[in-house]
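tRNA(Ile)-lysidine synthase, Helicobacter winghamensis. Tokens?
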Amino acid sequence: MRVLRLEFLEFLRDKRNLLAFSAGVDSSALYFLLRECGISFDIAIVDYGIRKQSRLEVDRAKTLCFWDKRQCFVKVKEPILKDFEHTARKVRYAFFEEIIQAQNYHNLILAHQLNDAFEWFLMQFCKGSSLLKMQGCYKRQGIVDYRVVRPLLKTSRQEILEYLNKRKIFYFEDFSNLDSKFLRNAFRKKFSNPLLEDFKDGIAFSLEQISGEVVSVELFRIPTLEPFCVFRNGGLEQIDRACKMCGALLSRAQKEMLAKELQNNSFSVVLQHKVSVEKLENRIFIAPFKTSLKAIPKVFKEKYRNLRIPKRFRGFLEVAREKGKLEAVLSIIKDI
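Tokens:
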């Protein structure tokens, strides 16, 4: 068995970290790997109340934290009756963000591994999706007030199981993952697991190359401000995705219009009276459309001009300035 190596430890050292924990295979391994690497962290777990063992999983989390002197945050959710996967994900991430904001964590650590990334890729590929959507699990994501880190994305589930078994680490098995009536489980059994057994290194390399070549879209969120996006060298697909995240579903006519505008060095449009989309040189700016009767003070107007910020986005910056968040937004833009 090869020694498992975690990615992105440099982002975790000397930081406040929160591990999303389930007591299953992946998060149990990640718990002990992080501990071995001397990474400080607390954990958060959600009990959805749909399996008999869920209370035991929470007890396992509490026990680990008791002995290791960590904080354990628990959310008990009433049973979800429909669209479980989508609803559970929303509940889970809302809970994590609530903790992060209240406790000032720098990083959210997720236990997604190579099998997860490859399963998603295959499912989207077979459905007929774009490279951006096939990319699925990002290795790390900056969301302004915290970072999402996935240290196991180059590690297969088989390697994780070998690690757990060799060290005799207890974990819970989610037997719903074996039910082939769920599409993802069927893909796992028929396609992704057999391919990973024979071509793990090549698959890991290819997924990493795709991740590096595709322009990703991140939704930046700062407390008290509406979300916004700024990215470099993006195309229509990235703009469409960013607009969706900002609450605007683009029509076919709007997409065709944007495709033409993207051929220009710069443009500025307002979509559905609520989202501004602007291009200046190689950067795309997408934000809630804001109008103001107040003139922008000359000193700030000059500052925005020097930073190459388009005119409509400046309205959003003025809202940020009034709320004391201007420098937080500008620090993001300067790095893009």
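The mean pLDDT is 86.
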